[in-house]
């Protein structure tokens, strides 16, 4: 199961300190409230959730920066219309998040760095990472196209329901799906119908 | 990408005034009261979502708005409104005091977005249980109307519930779901579903019949439907087939590994049944060998007749096995699309994991599963692009290989020799392989002797991508430290940045096989390719330990790689070495005997001047060395006398005061502290005298001239530790006391009122002189001096509870505090 999906910045943001990341979209799957009991109020829970997302985004950001530094590749700016190229040029990797940092159990964070943005998917460690990688790529491609992320707009903030719909098709309730190209096409038709509205 | 406008939007959303917000809420309520919902409503809802999600502090919605959104979520038929209201409600708190009660509408099943809200805000296990019950009821009696996905979200929701609290499902639920899963996995329709696109205006009614499903390479399917089958459209149960397989592994892991109450009778029955099954299978297995690949005759389902006798749990296991077998078969076909080829790999990984899980539960299945796994291994082992599939196969071999008496040598060779050597730069493989090692550390150490010998290969993952791999190595390194390979491992760790540079060169050499004439050619690349130095690099790139601790021409290697000291990858690697050294040195003291520790000290002293010249690297390594040198000598004081020759050589070299200050200080300290008869009976007066003379010479040199050009003044601690060491040695051999006293009084006179070239700070100078005076006055009483400067153990580590005088009060106090209740 996927624990959460994030879209966040991996480029420097002037309003933030060095190393911080702005989370543009986050979706956590499953119960937000810890079912272990304890007297954490719902507000505190939500706060905790947001902080955890920030923690993940920060760690992924530093992983992306270090990976780009080490590979020494020059970032090529792509324009809207070149989503496929942008995806091919993207850096990708996987990070181990230890138990407690920030989730109670150990998790793996798969990430794709497309220029200034990072797309992160946090999975349980025993999850099928090959499948997760493929799902992350499809999701990223769909987000890039439907939210026009390669352009200067702010649709990721104002049209976040599109990401929710994509997630509900490709990653329903955090479930990774084994979709061959026919199933994927069928889902794409549905989402295209939604996006056209 | 991320623009200024986005940043300002977020700022606006966070800083919206309360009054403006309330006005916005009331406007939205009015909009939602209408029948039709236009662009303005949608926009407003999107803005509301942004306002709520932009801040980490929760905002509460007015209850009227919240109720309206809730009813929209549950009853609207427009998906966009469902999505938006679900998203908005998830960002706010559930209405206080009210339980989320969705159970009233059993007629209209819960839509996926409402279920998402319910899942995220559910407060208790009972809520989850009732949700599960409702979902399963709807599954059982599902209508065939409505879009195919109106109930497909049921399985993902159940899977989420399983992840968080498996006990929400009752026995009956589990049995029901076992049966349903069997139906969907094994008996889904084999005809294409959906509306087949009509060929044109003149098509005959006959051609509108949907045809059978096909495989990924276009041939018609000859067996049951799986995720690797395609068609123009899909029926409901084919969709459920996909969803079922997607959650199968988790289901099996959660419910089937919990052992039943009545163990023995059950197991006996199961064993009998599966043995009889395997007998009936064995004949078909032999027939199978002669079948032509790709034939349409089903190989898997022909043998399943007797499985109907099994209870639901076991039946599901059997069907899971068959499904996986079929997937393995299907993955051999050449898919037309790239994404399908990737899916085939993912399916192979999943199938292997499920087979492993199933065999762990029911050990008798191993004999049926192994031939299949072996064949798959044979098919894939020579193709490195399937490396990530071979890891679950290796896990299977590790878990069940012994039981099936199968030789696993070739598998380990692949995992420990080929993968790290050739695929070190694949981040996902590195992650998965290191994870595999971490999880199976116990079994690997027992069953795979080459594990501890393969550290030169495994460290390639770390050398290439240190930030990603260091976390795993922090856990793995202790297991790689063995007495036999400890010294080689130390050398390898110290030369990790060199390995990093070598790997970069190796890759560049492969990508640019011909040197670019006059281009941005690297000197080190030339060197890498030249036959003279080939041996050096080959040693670094070796796959196994045992061919020697290190190379003779290390300094040559470091010079050749001087260009690489500012490559980011090498620098990142160098930053992780000190941490790993700490771990190594902490572990090695637990496995090494004194002889090995003696060797270790020598290596530390030797390598302190033989390191790749990366600016902060050398300093950090020296810090680690000095700390651990001290610890090792404290644990085994007799080592100091044992290695006195080398230690003295180190301490007697004045240059070390300036270039290796920390290490020098600690070496001097251990010499002063432990070069005595009480630590080792081999210590002689001559030894003490020669040590004294060497240290005296250094101290004299350091305090009589300025530091060499470019060097910093030595820290006061160096001088004082030299003085203390001399004093300690003198206190053990009283003939030396006059010499020390003379020196100390000379020092006092020389520094009185004047500045000295070897110390720039006046406070430091005062501290040094004060210390000198203390030592001088202490040495005036030689017998006292020894016990003050080197107190015996019962003074430094008092165990008061053993002292007859002090013990009683302590005991009484302890008893009192225990017996007094507060």
Chain-wise SSE layout:
The complex is a heterodimer of chains A (197) and B (822).
Chain A: E1 2-9, E2 23-28, H1 42-71, H2 83-89, E3 91-97, E4 107-114, E5 117-123, H3 129-146, H4 155-158, H5 160-170, H6 181-195
Antiparallel strand pairs in A: 1-2, 1-5, 3-4, 4-5
Helix pairs in contact in A: 3-5, 5-6
Chain B: H1 4-14, H2 18-33, H3 39-53, H4 63-75, H5 79-90, H6 112-121, H7 125-140, H8 154-164, H9 171-186, H10 236-256, H11 263-289, H12 312-330, H13 338-361, H14 366-380, H15 387-400, H16 409-422, H17 427-439, H18 441-447, H19 450-453, H20 455-464, H21 466-480, H22 486-494, H23 496-511, H24 523-529, H25 534-540, H26 554-560, H27 568-591, H28 594-607, H29 615-635, H30 638-642, H31 644-651, H32 655-659, H33 661-674, H34 685-702, H35 716-732, H36 737-751, H37 762-778, H38 782-789, H39 793-796, H40 804-819
Q: DSSP strand (E) fraction of chain B?
A: under 5%
Quaternary organisation of the protein chains: heterodimer
Unreliably modeled segments of chain A: none
Mean pLDDT of chain B: 85
Lateral strand order in the biggest sheet of chain A: 2-1-5-4-3
Q: Sheet bearing the most strands of chain B, described?
A: none
Radius of gyration of chain A: 17 Å
Residue stretches of chain B low in confidence (pLDDT < 50, at least 5 long) are: 143-148, 259-299, 301-305
Fraction of residues in helix of chain B? 55-70%
Count interface residues per chain for the largest interface: A-B, 80 and 93 residues
Distance between the termini of chain B: 64 Å
User: In angstroms, what is the radius of gyration of chain B?
Assistant: 38 Å
Number of helices of chain B: 40
């Amino acid at each position: 199961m996927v624990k959460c999906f994030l879209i966040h910045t991996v480029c420097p943001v002037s309003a933030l300190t060095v190393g911080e990341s702005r989370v543009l979209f986050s979706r956590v799957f499953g119960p937000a409230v810890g079912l272990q009991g304890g007297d954490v109020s719902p507000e505190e829970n939500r706060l905790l959730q947001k902080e955890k997302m920030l923690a993940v985004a920060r760690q992924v950001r530093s992983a992306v920066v270090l990976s780009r530094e080490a590979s020494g590749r020059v970032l090529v700016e792509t324009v809207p219309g070149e989503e496929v190229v942008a995806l091919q040029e993207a850096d990708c990797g996987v990070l181990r998040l230890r138990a407690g940092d920030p989730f109670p159990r150990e998790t793996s964070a798969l990430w794709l760095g497309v220029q200034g943005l990072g797309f992160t998917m946090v999975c349980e460690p025993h999850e099928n990472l090959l499948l997760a990688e493929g799902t992350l790529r499809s999701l990223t491609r769909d987000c890039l196209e439907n939210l026009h992320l390669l352009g200067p707009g702010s649709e990721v903030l104002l049209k976040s329901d599109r990401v929710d719909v994509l997630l509900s098709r490709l990653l329903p309730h955090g479930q990774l799906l084994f979709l061959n190209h026919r199933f994927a096409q069928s889902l794409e038709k549905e989402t295209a119908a939604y996006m056209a509205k | 990408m991320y623009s200024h406008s986005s940043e300002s939007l977020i700022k606006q959303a966070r800083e919206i005034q309360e009054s403006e917000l309330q006005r916005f809420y009331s406007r939205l309520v009015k909009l939602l009261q209408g029948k039709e919902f236009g662009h303005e409503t949608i926009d407003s809802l999107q803005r509301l979502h942004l306002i709520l999600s932009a801040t980490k502090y929760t905002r509460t919605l007015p209850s009227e708005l919240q109720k309206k959104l809730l009813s929209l979520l549950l009853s609207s038929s427009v998906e966009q409104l469902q999505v938006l209201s679900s998203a908005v409600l998830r960002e706010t708190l559930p209405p206080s005091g009210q339980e989320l009660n969705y159970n009233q509408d059993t007629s209209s099943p819960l839509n996926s977005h409402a279920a998402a809200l319910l899942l995220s805000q559910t407060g208790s296990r009972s809520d989850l249980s009732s949700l599960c019950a409702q979902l399963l009821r709807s599954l059982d009696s599902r209508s065939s109307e409505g879009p195919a996905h109106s109930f497909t979200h049921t399985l993902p929701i159940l899977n989420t519930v399983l992840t968080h609290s498996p006990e929400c499902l009752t026995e009956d639920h589990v049995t029901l779901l076992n049966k349903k899963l069997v139906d969907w996995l094994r008996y889904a329709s084999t005809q294409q579903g959906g509306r087949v696109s009509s060929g044109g205006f003149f098509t005959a009614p006959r051609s509108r019949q949907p045809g059978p499903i096909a495989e990924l390479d276009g041939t018609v399917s000859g067996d049951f439907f799986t995720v690797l089958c395609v068609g123009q459209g899909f029926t409901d149960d084919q969709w459920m087939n996909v969803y079922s397989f997607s959650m199968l592994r988790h289901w099996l892991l959660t419910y089937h590994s919990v052992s039943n109450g009545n163990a023995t009778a059950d197991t006996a029955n199961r064993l009998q049944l599966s043995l009889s099954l395997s007998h009936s299978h064995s004949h078909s297995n032999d027939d199978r060998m002669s079948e032509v690949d790709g034939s349409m005759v089903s190989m898997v389902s022909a043998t399943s007749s007797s499985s109907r006798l099994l209870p639901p749990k076991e039946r599901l296991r059997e069907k899971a096995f068959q499904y996986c077998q079929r997937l393995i078969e299907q993955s051999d076909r050449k898919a037309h699309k790239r994404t399908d080829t990737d899916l085939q790999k993912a399916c192979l990984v999943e199938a292997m994991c499920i087979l492993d899980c199933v065999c762990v539960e029911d050990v008798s299945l191993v004999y049926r599963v192994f031939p299949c796994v072996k064949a798959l291994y044979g098919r894939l082992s020579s193709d490195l692009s399937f490396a990530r599939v071979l890891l679950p196969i290796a896990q299977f071999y590790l878990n069940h290989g012994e039981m099936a008496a199968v030789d696993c040598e070739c598998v380990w060779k692949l995992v420990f020799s080929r993968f790290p050597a050739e695929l070190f730069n694949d981040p996902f493989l590195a992650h998965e392989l290191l994870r595999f090692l971490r999880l199976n550390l116990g079994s690997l150490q027992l069953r795979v002797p080459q594990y501890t010998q393969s550290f030169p290969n495994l460290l390639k993952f770390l050398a290439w991508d240190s930030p990603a791999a260091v976390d795993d190595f922090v856990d793995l390194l202790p297991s790689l430290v063995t007495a036999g390979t400890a010294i080689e491992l130390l050398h390898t760790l110290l030369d990790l940045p060199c390995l990093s540079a070598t790997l970069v060169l190796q890759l560049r050499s492969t990508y640019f096989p011909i040197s670019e004439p006059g281009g941005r050619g690297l000197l080190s690349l030339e060197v890498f390719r030249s036959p003279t130095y080939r041996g050096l690099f080959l040693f670094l790139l070796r796959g196994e330990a045992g061919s020697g601790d290190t190379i003779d021409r290390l300094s040559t290697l470091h010079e050749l790689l001087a260009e690489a000291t500012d490559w980011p990858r090498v620098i990142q690697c160098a930053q992780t070495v000190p941490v790993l050294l700490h771990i190594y040195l902490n572990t090695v003291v637990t496995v090494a005997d004194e002889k090995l520790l003696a060797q270790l000290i020598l290596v530390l002293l030797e390598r302190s001047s033989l390191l790749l010249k990366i600016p902060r690297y050398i300093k950090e390594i020296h810090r680690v060395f000095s700390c651990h040198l001290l610890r090792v000598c404290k644990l085994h004081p007799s080592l100091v006398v044992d290695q006195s020759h080398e230690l003295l050589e180190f301490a007697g070299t004045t240059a070390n005061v300036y270039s290796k200050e920390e290490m020098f200080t600690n070496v001097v300290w251990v010499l002063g502290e432990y070069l005595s008869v009480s630590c080792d009976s081999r210590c002689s007066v001559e030894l003490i005298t020669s040590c004294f003379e060497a240290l005296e010479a250094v101290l004299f040199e350091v305090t009589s001239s300025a530091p060499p050009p470019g060097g910093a003044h030595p820290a006061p601690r160096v001088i004082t530790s030299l003085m203390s060491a001399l004093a300690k040695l003198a206190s053990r051999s009283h003939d030396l006391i006059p010499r020390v006293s003379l020196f100390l009084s000379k020092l006092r006179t020389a520094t009185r009122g004047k500045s000295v070239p070897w110390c720039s700070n006046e406070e430091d100078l005062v501290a040094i002189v004060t210390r000198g005076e203390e030592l001088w006055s202490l040495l005036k009483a030689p017998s006292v001096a020894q016990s003050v400067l080197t107190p015996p153990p019962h003074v430094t580590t008092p165990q008061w509870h053993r002292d007859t005088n002090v013990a009683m009060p302590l005991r009484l106090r302890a008893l009192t505090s225990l017996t007094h209740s507060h």
